């Protein structure tokens, strides 16, 4: 998504056509289901993991970055691709509050 946005912005003919996106990613269990009252009958995911990812996405504006991920996700990903995780894309973990949640969450902000 970020690469496609960069390409779009490189081809944009005016500043009004430029796009800015924020991505928040967290790891954990989710529930997959269908809301029966909707007309389109699409599947969706629900749960605390989805809510945290949404809050991280919202935080990208405050941190002026395109991506924030939970430190939990980084630890899980590092098992499979350590060179990708620690390639300098993310700053060291910082602990922060998440809107409408008790406690603190360690996050990684994209550099």
- Find the structural class using helix and strand composition: alpha+beta
What proportion strand?
15-25%
- What is the strand tally? 6
Mean pLDDT: 89
- Helix run count: 4
What is the approximate shape? globular
Q: Quaternary state, please?
A: single chain
Distance between the termini: 17 Å
Adjacency order of strands in the biggest sheet: 1-4-6-5
Low-confidence stretches: none
Please outline the major beta sheet.
4 strands, mixed
General description of the model:
With about 110 residues, this protein is an alpha+beta fold. The chain has four helices and six strands; from the N terminus they run αβββαβααββ. The strands form two sheets. A four-stranded mixed beta sheet has the order 1-4-6-5. Strand 2 and strand 3 form a beta hairpin. The two termini are about 15 Å apart. The model has no long low-confidence stretch (mean pLDDT about 90).
Task: Describe the secondary-structure layout.
Layout: H1 2-11, E1 23-25, E2 31-34, E3 43-46, H2 48-62, E4 67-70, H3 71-80, H4 82-85, E5 94-97, E6 104-109
